[in-house]
Design goal:
Blueprint (H helix, E strand, L loop, with lengths): L2 H35 L7 H27 L10 E2 L6 H13 L7 E5 L4 E5 L11 E6 H6 L2 H13 L7 H21 L4 H40 L1 H26 L7 E2 L4 H4 L1 H7 L3 H4 L19 H9 L23 H12 L2 H4 L2 E2 L2 H34 L25 H9 L3 H7 L12 H26 L4 E3 L7 E3 L2 H14 L7 H12 L3
Parallel strand pairs: 2-4, 5-6
Antiparallel strand pairs: 1-2, 3-4, 7-8
Helix pairs in contact: 1-2, 1-6, 1-7, 2-6, 2-7, 3-5, 5-7, 5-8, 6-7, 7-8, 8-12, 15-17, 15-18, 19-20
Length: 538
């Protein structure tokens, strides 16, 4: 079947989605008319009332679906985007208009900058997509921060290529119809009554049929849009953009989790404009393989069974089959899409104001260094606390076992039964306990562990808990060095946020802690480092 015939069939199914609702309403109207014009006996009068009630409720659900379907193409407000006009950003708009012109499309009426690694064009359409309306473009500031200007041109041409209706006008209608059906089905699935859910099941089944039928049309449009991008920006540049976008998406997710949210639990945020703007710093510090490695620990999103996008590898393979051109993506050109913008800092600040919740916006603002230090201290306290509590309980048990009174150093809060924070043992006390032979198994047995690890005994148990004891000692060392001013904050744009330790500790700390948590603990090396750092200038 040719693309044109598939598009015609898709349009017929789209029309059928609307007509199905009208047919159901007509059938229920006939049923109600029969009930009203053919009176029943008094004994069975309740049957007619029940039928009328059910049909009215079903009709309300169908009308809601039809209304949602007709409104699906409308453009709503964009509370989490920053509107930029041609007067605000003339250079960016020039690129957008050039991409629209080369694809034979009209430029958007509105352009919003958003906080996503994404670009999209949406159009307010009517009459099942046959009539065009206002057009809007969304561009992610993180996308502009990571793509070169030529790569951005390819992305822009691809987005307008969706509306090129490259083989037939109905191709574009099909694409808009898929979006409208998905929007309608979501509305039905959110219905609060069983009648909405019952009608929704019918429409969901029809929508799946439509999506399966039109998937080949949608994917054809995607591949055609890729070819359009290659003609406008160059084959190699378009391929480079396709490869870069997933890397940027993974890096952006890592940035939000590791850096932007670093201080949320501490009641702090990065400086104004840096919640999203700090992503530029990450991109500047990590390039190539180091940037791509950030995706390694992230689970890729599960592809939607009716996704209109073919796999990226397939899209790249098809593009590479095109004839080579004299335009290539220069890997040495690091000019990003942000260079097209005026007053980038102001835009990041405005976007931040749009995307932060009211509660988050009230958090105090601190520098990146202060944020890294606060996060490192909080992490070190978290690592060290299980070990400190385990040692405190061991000491308490040993005192009681000796028949003595519980000393102040190990007394409990009588209301909670827990060791109080101000009475938890310090680093030297913990090392003393290790030297007394309390690490294995007394302290180790009191360390928290998952249920499946409680069955471990002997060397297996030691090997399982040893890393946690190591982390506890490392956390106490970090706290000691931070308090004495010998450890400095490291935002770690190229690595991970943390502390910069003195050179002597960087070289010898791991070996010293390994010795302290060995099967036969030896704390001498760790104590020597502590003594040396005590006499070292801050």
């Amino acid at each position: 079947m040719t693309f044109r015939l598939r598009a015609v069939r898709a349009f017929a199914l789209l029309l059928g989605f609307f007509l199905m609702g009208l047919a159901l309403l007509s059938a229920m109207a006939v049923l109600d008319w029969l009930v009203l014009t053919h009176p029943v006996t008094d004994r069975a009068a309740w049957i007619g009332g029940t039928v009328l009630t059910v049909t009215v409720l079903l009709a309300a659900a169908i009308l809601r679906g039809l209304f949602t379907f007709l409104r699906a193409g409308r453009l709503g407000p964009v509370p989490e985007g920053v509107l930029v006009t041609p007067e605000d950003q003339p250079v960016l708009w020039e690129q957008v208009r050039a991409a629209a012109e080369v694809t034979g499309q009209r430029p958007p009426d509105e352009l919003y900058l958003v906080a996503e690694v994404n670009a999209a064009v949406a159009e307010q359409s009517r009459m099942l997509g046959l009539l065009h309306g206002r057009r809007r473009m969304y561009l992610g500031l993180p996308l502009l921060a990571g793509l070169t200007v030529p790569q951005l041109r390819a992305v822009l041409a691809h987005e307008f290529g969706h509306y090129g209706n490259l083989d037939t006008r109905l191709g574009g209608v099909t694409m808009r119809g898929r979006a409208a059906l998905l929007h309608t089905v979501e509305a039905f699935q959110e219905g609060s009554t069983e009648f909405h859910q019952a009608i929704g099941a019918l429409y969901v089944g029809y929508a799946r049929l439509y999506l399966r039928t039109t998937q080949s049309v949608a994917r054809h449009q995607e591949l055609a849009a890729d070819r359009m991008a290659a003609r406008h920006a160059g084959r190699d540049t378009t391929v480079a953009a396709l490869r870069a976008i997933p890397v940027l998406a993974g890096a952006h997710t890592h940035y939000l989790d590791t850096y932007a949210a670093m201080g949320i639990s501490l009641g702090a945020l990065p400086p104004v404009g840096e919640v999203h703007g700090g992503f530029r710093r990450l991109l500047a510090a990590r390039t190539g393989e180091r940037l791509a490695a950030l995706r390694a620990g992230q689970r890729p999103p599960r592809p939607h069974p009716h996704d209109s996008h073919p796999p990226t590898a397939e899209r790249i393979a098809r593009l590479e089959q095109l004839p080579a051109d004299d335009r290539s993506d220069d890997p040495t050109d690091e000019t990003t899409g942000l260079a097209l913008l005026r007053d980038t800092d102001r835009l990041f600040t405005a976007l931040e104001a749009r995307t932060l919740s009211g509660e988050s916006a009230q958090l105090r603002r601190v520098s990146w260094d202060e944020l890294a230090m606060a996060r490192a201290i909080a992490d070190a306290e978290g690592w060290s606390r299980p070990l400190r509590v385990a040692v405190a309980r061991t000491l308490r048990s040993s005192v009681r076992g000796a028949g003595g009174a519980v000393t102040d150093a190990v007394r409990r809060d009588g209301t909670t039964g827990e060791v109080t924070d101000d009475l938890l043992p310090g680093l030297e006390e913990i090392l003393d306990a290790f030297d007394r032979g309390l690490l294995w198994p007394e302290v180790a047995d009191r360390m928290p562990k998952p249920d499946q690890a409680t069955r471990l005994v002997g060397q297996a148990a030691r090997n399982f808990i040893r890393p946690r004891i190591f982390d506890g000692l490392a956390g106490l060392v970090h706290l000691r060095l931070a308090e004495s001013g010998q450890a400095k904050p490291d935002v770690g744009w190229s690595e991970q946020p943390g502390l910069l330790l003195p050179e002597s500790w960087e070289k010898a700390m791991d070996d010293a802690i390994d010795a302290a948590v060995a099967d036969t603990p030896d704390t001498r090396s760790l104590r020597a480092l502590l003594t040396a750092s005590h006499h070292a200038p801050a």
